[in-house]
Amino acid sequence: xxxxLQFKYCWLLxxxxxxAACDSGPASQGLGFENAWIRAIPPGVKMTAxxxxxxxxxxAALQIESFSSPSFGDVSLHRTEIVEGVSKMREVPALSxxxxxxxxxxxxxxxxxxxxxxxxxxxxxxxxxxITASDGRSFSFDLPVERR
Length: 148
Ligand SMILES: [Cu+2]
Description:
148 residues; 1 helix
């Protein structure tokens, strides 16, 4: 009887450890992506943008280097700048975020540039975006597709 009980607790412990290892949710250390969303596009349009606040929840600076999504063939970080009165987008190869700091991605500034959509990108859908840092860690986020 006692042995059986111990066995059960052992399994609970293993499950708890697995859950802790897989956790990339808002409460975890690392990278957060708050109020994140992707702009819906009409069928046939081949690019859109994603926004939100990237938050470094770790205790050291985090250098973000690459982006990917199963819903898009190409994902990168862009920044919109006004050059001589003309709005231009430039690719940002890497983004460093200080410990505890946030970088806001918003229309007219930094944004995720999502190109070559795989199928429709319609409101109500969820798009997974994976962000990889220079230390090899990667963070996945589920972004809702919204019409704003
Ligand atoms: Cu862009």
